[in-house]
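Duplicate of #3305? Posting structure anyway:
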């Protein structure tokens, strides 16, 4: 097993990448991500569209882990949209308090329950225009619901997705909707939902915001930002996070023996 860092393919400023070249590189990177993160999935625990909508609303400015700690009691107490519509505000606030911004989130959940009860018989609708018209549901949340509850392909532009696709120079856009459309033009529609999960997984476990694990990254040969973080494998493996840190290292051609126990035990942000 090699312990040398992969050699990156640089995009030179005096030889700008063509649109076709960017699309081909993005699709190659998407294939590598699929091999690197076969476990990628929606990390919000849920059973059905309503639970996913609620969990996604709670996830704003909160970790998925914390949301998953709160939702079992919440879902048991409020199993239907009508239950949220008629919820006692103080009780609901107390249940979701650990997720932060609990007053605003309580307002969104009550109004969402009312809207679903009044307009859709308590069911969550399955189209983007219908979803974004609901209280507390923005385009990002709508795409999460569509992709994971209705199997309708959608790109979820969260903070991880946004910074990674810009770091990879898939797009220079900064507006989430424009990023969604730009990436959608590069990747086949059928792959949008899983691409979102894989990019987010990669951002949480390998390509961190301040110090990416460049020397332990399977995308290194295709990444124009290679070198932003440490390139020496012995340093880079320390930055991997999660129970699959050893497997991530081996996928990048590095011995899993170099991965410290702290990396395996570290929680993905």
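Output from current build:
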């Amino acid at each position: 097993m090699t312990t040398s860092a992969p050699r990156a393919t640089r995009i030179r400023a005096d030889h700008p990448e063509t649109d076709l070249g960017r699309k081909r590189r993005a699709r190659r990177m998407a294939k590598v991500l699929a091999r690197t993160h076969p476990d990628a999935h929606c990390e919000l625990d849920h059973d059905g569209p309503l639970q996913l909508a609620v969990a996604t609303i709670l996830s704003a400015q909160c970790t998925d882990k914390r949301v998953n700690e709160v939702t079992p009691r919440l879902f048991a107490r409020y199993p239907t949209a009508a239950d949220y519509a008629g919820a006692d505000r103080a009780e609901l606030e107390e249940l979701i308090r650990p997720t932060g911004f609990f007053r605003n989130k309580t307002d969104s959940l009550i109004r969402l329950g009312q809207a679903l009860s009044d307009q859709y018989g308590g069911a969550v609708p399955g189209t983007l225009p219908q979803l974004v018209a609901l209280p507390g549901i923005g385009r990002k949340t709508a795409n999460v619901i569509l992709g994971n509850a209705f199997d309708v392909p959608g790109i979820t532009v969260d903070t991880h997705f946004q910074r990674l696709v810009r770091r990879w120079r898939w797009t220079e856009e900064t507006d989430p909707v424009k990023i969604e459309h730009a990436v959608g033009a590069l990747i086949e529609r059928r792959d949008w939902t899983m691409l979102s999960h894989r990019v987010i997984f990669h951002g949480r476990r390998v390509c961190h915001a301040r110090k990416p694990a460049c020397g332990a990254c399977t995308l290194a040969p295709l990444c124009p930002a290679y070198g932003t973080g440490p390139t020496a494998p012995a340093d880079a493996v320390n930055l991997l996070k999660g129970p699959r840190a050893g497997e991530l290292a081996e996928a990048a051609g590095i011995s899993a023996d170099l991965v410290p126990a702290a990396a395996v035990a570290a929680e993905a942000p």
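Confirmed duplicate; merging threads. The first helix runs from residue 19 to 36. The chain is about 50% helix and 0% strand.
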